[in-house]
């Protein structure tokens, strides 16, 4: 570690020529941290034909953009991306690098941490800096429980963290913002790379669309058993919602992992989120707390889910749900009749 | 084909409780299990062995009790087991863990060259997924993370299906390589009686630091870990919203009322 490490970097993930939402969110939080430390905020852009995207990173808060535009970087692969990031980090010595906690973001961050022999904190949900000590305070839910841990990397630089998508807020784009673009080259031949991408198939991988859903009905341990969980499906069917589950519900085998919302599942921001028989452990709430409206049912009046619920209903979900399903069903059929009259 | 699967003993996070007064973990009576993703990794390695021949070894780092997860792997069908266990490894973060495991892998490969290293996607106690790519970097072999299917295996390369956020990438990698395994790659099979019997009597090879070669002790355990836990705290409290009151019927009636404006988000089930 040395005094020369300065500046905050955000690894800008590009998919199909588009910058990932999480990278823009990281520029949002990175801007705040960079202003506190009084250092520039930089985006790092690796790919093929991606140089024009630099402007967008600047509009969203970057002062500088480091670019390596090379055909070997066309699709994500660890080897060439590691070579590129490693080269830039050694040349320009940032003090902090942030990555989205996506499959590719976690992959590259883990490889670079080992390459640079520095610390990496996974799946953070809160970031701050100690200005005096120039320390990144990276906080994340710990042990799948209702507790947060702040992780520090005191003696190694850069300090690095991966950050959950949809937890931070991006800034509004400012087309008037100006910045510097720094282009570097990657001396790596395709023949040297041991992995090839044969094909990429988008979309069909996910049978469950939680991310795009307007309404999600999520069930937890409080549904009791697989049969009780059927009420979650019935409510979702009645109102045309997607079904989600907590880690407990998934691990109990009541529904597949594709449905899991939370730290180790999806992060969702629907317009309405029903949290039913869900206690509200932070492992779950980090994945849904930014929903526009949260409706919670739990028989424990002190369950933490009520702290973030817009509307809370205390009671046994297995008693309330049949009433609710019937009421929605009647109401929606009425509307249907009216709108077709 | 020689596959080494790195496995971890983890507390069963499903049953971990938090003491609400002190915000600390209550580990009393919490059982330890083989990390679920690692279970799928061992199972996948055993499938490949059945198809292509060769052997499956498992490697774990931990206290002597971690022998339990090696025995569990033997039940699934692994052939050999290695445990690296030493106070010098204690307190390791992901960087120091990948260093220690790499040193053990180097020693294993001296007597029996390794074609593939498998790791679970992540461990359920730390959820980081950082150790696998770290090992690959140290061994200088390609890492391919989030693998949901192994579609082809030859003596020179493998073809893999890698799970992305919105789809799949099909990747070909030369051997040796390291892959990290998603749960959807397979279903865990019931252990066979001979394997269960073998597991009962199985004792892994146990190595301390002194058994490993060319080890820089400064890179091990707490000393070799750049990250430290600064503090633990309860998540910021948020203002709770409105509580609906009354019988289930009364509460539902109020809810239907407040959702009146939102009904265009609902879609009547046409079936």
Written description of the protein model:
Chain A is α/β, with parallel strands linked by helices and 341 residues long. In chain A, 30% of the residues lie in helices and 27% in strands. In chain A, the strands form four sheets. A seven-stranded parallel sheet of chain A has the order 7-11-6-1-4-5-12, with helices on both faces. A five-stranded parallel sheet of chain A has the order 15-14-16-17-18. Chain B has 271 residues and is an alpha/beta fold. Chain B has one domain: Rossmann fold (3-Layer(aba) Sandwich). Chain B is 27% helix and 30% strand. In chain B, the strands form three sheets. Chain B has a nine-stranded mixed sheet with strand order 11-10-9-12-8-1-6-7-13, with helices on both faces. Chain B has a two-stranded antiparallel sheet with strand order 2-5. The termini of chain B are far apart. The mean pLDDT of chain B is 91. At the A-B interface, helix 3, helix 4, strand 7, strand 10 and strand 13 of A face helix 3, helix 4, strand 9, strand 10 and strand 11 of B. Strand 10 of chain A pairs antiparallel with strand 14 of chain B.
Features:
heterodimer; A: 341 residues; alpha/beta; Rossmann fold; 2 domains; seven-stranded parallel β-sheet; five-stranded parallel β-sheet; 9 helices; elongated; B: 271 residues; nine-stranded mixed β-sheet; two-stranded antiparallel ribbon; 15 strands; 27% helix; 30% strand
Brief overview:
Chain A has 341 residues and is an alpha/beta fold.
Q: Could you name the CATH class of the largest domain in chain A?
A: Alpha Beta
Task: Give me the count of strands of chain A.
Answer: 18
| Sequence stretches where pLDDT stays below 50 over 5 or more residues of chain B | none
Distance from first to last alpha carbon of chain B: 52 Å
Q: Provide the gyration radius of chain A in Å.
A: 23 Å
CATH architecture of chain B: 3-Layer(aba) Sandwich
Main β-sheet description of chain B: 9 strands, mixed
* Element-by-element helix/strand order of chain A: EEEHEHEHEHEEEEEEEEHEHEHEHEH
Question: Strand content of the residues of chain A, in percent?
Answer: 25-35%
Order of neighbouring strands in the sheet with most strands of chain A: 7-11-6-1-4-5-12
SS-derived structural category of chain B: alpha/beta
Percent helix of chain B? 25-40%
């Amino acid at each position: 570690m040395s005094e020369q490490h300065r500046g905050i970097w955000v690894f800008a993930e590009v998919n199909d020529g588009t910058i990932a939402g999480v990278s823009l969110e990281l520029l949002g939080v990175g801007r705040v941290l960079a202003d506190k430390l009084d250092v520039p905020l930089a985006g790092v852009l690796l790919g093929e034909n991606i140089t024009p995207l630099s402007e967008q990173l600047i509009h969203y808060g970057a002062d500088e953009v480091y670019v390596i535009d090379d055909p070997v970087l066309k699709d994500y692969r660890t080897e060439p991306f590691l070579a590129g990031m490693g080269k830039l980090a050694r040349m320009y010595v940032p003090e902090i690098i942030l990555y989205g906690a996506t499959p590719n973001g976690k992959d590259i961050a883990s490889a670079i941490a080992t390459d640079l022999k520095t610390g990496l904190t996974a799946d953070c949900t809160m970031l701050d800096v100690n200005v005096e000590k120039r320390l990144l305070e990276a906080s994340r839910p710990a042990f799948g429980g209702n507790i947060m841990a702040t992780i520090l990397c005191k003696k190694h630089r850069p300090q690095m963290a991966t950050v959950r998508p949809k937890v931070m807020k991006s800034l509004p784009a400012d087309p008037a913002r100006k910045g510097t673009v720094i282009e570097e080259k990657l001396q790596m031949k395709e023949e040297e790379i041991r992995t090839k991408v044969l094909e990429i198939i988008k979309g069909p991988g996910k049978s469950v669309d939680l991310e795009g859903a307007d309404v999600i009905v999520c069930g937890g341990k409080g549904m009791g058993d697989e049969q009780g969980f059927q009420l979650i499906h019935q409510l979702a069917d009645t109102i045309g919602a997607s079904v989600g589950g907590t880690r407990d519900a998934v691990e109990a085998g009541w529904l597949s992992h594709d449905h899991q919302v939370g730290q180790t599942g999806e992060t969702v921001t629907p317009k309405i989120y029903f949290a039913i028989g869900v206690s509200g452990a932070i492992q779950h709430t980090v994945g849904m707390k930014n929903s526009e409206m949260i409706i919670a049912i739990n028989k424990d009046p002190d369950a933490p889910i009520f702290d973030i619920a817009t509307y809370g209903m205390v009671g046994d979900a297995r008693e309330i749900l049949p009433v609710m399903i019937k009421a929605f069903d009647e109401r929606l059929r009425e509307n249907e009749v009216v709108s077709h009259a | 084909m020689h596959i080494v699967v790195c496995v971890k003993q983890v507390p069963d996070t499903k049953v971990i409780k938090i003491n609400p007064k002190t915000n600390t973990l209550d580990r009393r009576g919490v059982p330890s299990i083989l990390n679920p993703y690692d279970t799928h990794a061992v199972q996948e390695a055993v499938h490949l062995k059945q198809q292509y021949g060769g052997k499956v070894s498992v490697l774990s780092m931990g206290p002597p009790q971690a022998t339990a997860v090696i025995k569990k792997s033997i039940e699934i069908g692994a052939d050999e087991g290695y445990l690296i266990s030493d106070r010098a490894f204690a307190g390791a973060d992901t960087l120091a863990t990948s260093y220690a495991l790499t040193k053990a892998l180097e020693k294993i490969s001296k007597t029996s060259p390794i074609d593939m290293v498998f790791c679970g996607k992540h461990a359920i106690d730390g959820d980081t997924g950082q150790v696998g790519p770290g090992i690959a970097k140290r061994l200088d072999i390609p890492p391919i993370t989030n693998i949901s299917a192994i579609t082809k295996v030859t003596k020179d390369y493998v073809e893999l299906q890698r799970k992305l956020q919105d789809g799949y990438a099909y990747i070909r990698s030369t051997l040796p390589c390291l892959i990290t395994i998603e749960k959807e790659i397979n279903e865990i099979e019931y252990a066979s009686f001979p394997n269960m019997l073998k597991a009962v009597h199985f004792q892994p090879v146990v190595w301390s630091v002194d058994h490993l070669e060319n080890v820089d002790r400064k890179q091990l355990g707490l000393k070799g870990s750049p990250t430290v836990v600064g503090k633990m705290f309860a998540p910021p409290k948020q203002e709770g919203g409105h509580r609906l009151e009354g019988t289930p019927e009364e509460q539902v009636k109020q809810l239907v009322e407040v959702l009146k404006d939102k009904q265009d988000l609902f879609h009547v089930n046409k079936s």
